[in-house]
Design a protein that fits this description.
7 helices; 3-stranded parallel sheet; alpha/beta
């Protein structure tokens, strides 16, 4: 289950999927986001510290356990400091002429904080981290129980 999306991308020959043994090689490419998966947080901590020491002003770095797997693996994601969900929502709304006064967002991780702060309806799933739970206007069940889909079906009915 852990690599379902990787397997699917390999199956269809997605050229964006690259496995690299030297992370520095990735910085020569046009990268939207970089994800490093390790069996434990200890293996991620040094890389996180190095990234923040060298690039703290230009990147976002998040470390979190993989909530979709029971293997205990830890993910580190790195993206440009401007590539935030709330900024993306604002750009889409501006481009499409959409008002944000009825915006509903769903989230569980620290990378969702910005959009939770901007949305009048911020829905946290049960497994959300404390900063998300604190900003939520409503709480629903666990992500593994298809709670977002159930919420949307209920609202739509």
């Amino acid at each position: 289950m852990l690599f379902r999306s990787v397997d699917e991308r390999q199956r269809v020959g997605d050229p964006r999927l690259m496995r690299v043994d030297d992370v520095h090689r990735s910085f020569d490419e046009h990268v939207l986001a970089l994800t490093v998966i390790a069996p434990s947080a200890q293996e991620i901590d040094a890389l996180r510290a190095d990234l923040l020491a060298e690039c703290a002003d230009s990147v976002q770095v998040y470390v979190f356990p993989n909530g979709y797997s029971d293997l205990g693996d830890v993910w580190l994601t790195v993206s440009d400091a401007l590539a935030t969900k709330d900024r993306g929502i604002r750009l889409l709304a501006e481009h499409g002429g959409f008002a944000l006064d009825a915006l509903t967002v769903f989230g569980d991780g620290e990378n969702d904080v910005g959009m939770f702060e901007m949305a009048p309806n911020a829905i946290a799933v049960a497994n959300a981290v404390p900063p998300i739970r604190q900003r939520a206007t409503e709480w629903i069940g666990d992500h593994a129980e298809d709670s977002v889909v159930k919420y949307l079906q209920k609202v739509r009915a």
